[in-house]
Amino acid sequence: MPGLHFLSKKKTSSTPTPLLLAAILYVSALHSPSPEFAALAPGYFVATCCAISELAVPIQAARRPEQQDSNSETTKLNAEQKAFQNVLGLILAGLISEAFIETTGLWITMGYRLTLDHCPVHIDERSHEWRGLFSGLQVHIF
Asked: Does pTM surpass 0.85?
């Protein structure tokens, strides 16, 4: 996971949410010196947008195979971890797309909603860096 200026600790995740994974791949492709990898950016952008749209309108009837498998690493993430990673994915996608995607304001609003819904009341050293994510959302707006 890329280190971001508003997160104090560099953390890695072996089980990123689809949104975080797509956003990281999109940002990486846009900044890649390799023309072959850079050419994948439009596809990663579409994957990022699809993952964001699933947050707004979850697909209930046609669940993805990894969601059906109870042994999957993705299903082992709790709601707070998923929300944290999704907010981070929204920040990455929003920061890289804000100049040409008019819906980034909606993406950031979703980030605020996820933060309000899933940020624990008592934050300690074991908690995710919710303050950092909140600062990242604020930086993105201003």
From this structure: no
